[in-house]
């Protein structure tokens, strides 16, 4: 009598393929922005946008730099982000590790991969928050406009008012791909550990 996949600790074929497709979908993030910060103000009703990619910035960065100069914020440039040199390799590792976990077909491998993915996401958000804190608090003493006690840290996620500007910080296409993959992994783990019972090895 064959042992069930549950007894052998193996994931189902469906979960295996979902994991492979999800891991490979991370490669799309090389070609789309990961995050975006949108700014609105009465003098810019059409809005200003800065998009963050794995290895570059895009959008109206220079216009934002020109505005930020008046309140003493540092000039944003790609060279100030060493992460841009590391992130492409991190995503390649996550894609490869996801495929390897799927080929191993072990629940413990999928769980370990999920933990690594979550840890990476938490660190990335912390790194983004840290940059935003330093960028919004370390202001030049020579700024033309000074508001005592005012800091200009952009929101980590969601909306925040900064003087007469409203700022939104939200995932872009690449960020939603990561989020969707994380949700898919949660469903896989719940299904494999909680709901699959007495299935034959496929």
How is the secondary structure organized here?
Layout: H1 5-8, H2 13-25, E1 35-41, E2 44-52, E3 57-59, H3 61-69, H4 83-104, H5 107-137, E4 158-162, E5 165-171, H6 173-195
Antiparallel strand pairs: 1-2, 1-5, 2-3, 4-5
Short description:
The chain is built from 6 helices and 5 strands, in the order ααβββαααββα. It is an alpha+beta fold and 202 residues long.
Attribute tags:
6 helices, 5 strands, 15% strand
What does this structure look like?
The structure is a single chain. With 202 residues, the chain is α+β, with helices and mostly antiparallel strands. It has one domain. Helices cover 50% and strands 15% of the residues. The chain has six helices and five strands, in the order ααβββαααββα. It has helices at residues 5-8, 13-25, 61-69, 83-104, 107-137, 173-195; strands at residues 35-41, 44-52, 57-59, 158-162, 165-171. Strands 3-2-1-5-4 form a five-stranded antiparallel sheet. β1 (35-41) and β2 form a beta hairpin. α2 packs antiparallel against α4 (83-104), α4 runs antiparallel to α5 (107-137) and α5 runs antiparallel to α6 (173-195).
Distance between the termini: 14 Å
Order of secondary-structure elements: HHEEEHHHEEH
What is the count of β-strands?
5
Kindly report the average pLDDT value.
Answer: 89
Which quaternary structure do these chains form?
Answer: single chain
Number of helices: 6
Number of domains: 1
Biggest β-sheet strands, sense, barrel: 5 strands, antiparallel
Radius of gyration: 22 Å
How much helix is in the residues? 40-55%
What order do the strands of the largest sheet run in, or round the barrel if closed?
3-2-1-5-4
* Broad structural category: alpha+beta
Uncertain segments:
none
Strand fraction equals 15-25%
Spatial shape: elongated
């Amino acid at each position: 009598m064959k042992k069930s996949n549950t007894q052998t600790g193996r994931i189902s074929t469906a979960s295996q393929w979902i994991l492979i497709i999800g891991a490979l979908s991370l490669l799309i993030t090389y070609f789309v922005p990961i995050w975006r910060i949108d700014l609105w103000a009465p003098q810019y009703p059409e809005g200003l946008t800065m998009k963050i990619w794995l290895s570059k910035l895009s959008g109206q960065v220079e216009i934002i730099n020109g505005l930020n100069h008046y309140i003493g914020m540092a000039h944003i440039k790609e060279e100030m982000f060493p992460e841009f040199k590391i992130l492409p390799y991190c995503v390649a590792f996550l894609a490869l590790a996801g495929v390897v976990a799927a080929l191993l077909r072990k629940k413990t491998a999928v769980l370990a991969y999920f933990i690594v993915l979550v840890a990476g996401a938490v660190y990335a958000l912390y790194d983004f928050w840290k940059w935003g804190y330093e960028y919004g608090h370390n202001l030049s003493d020579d700024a033309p406009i000074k508001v005592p006690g005012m800091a200009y840290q952009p929101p980590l996620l969601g909306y925040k008012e900064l003087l007469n500007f409203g700022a939104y910080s939200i995932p872009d296409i690449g960020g939603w791909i990561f989020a969707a993959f994380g949700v898919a992994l949660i469903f896989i783990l719940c299904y494999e550990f909680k709901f699959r019972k007495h299935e034959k090895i496929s």
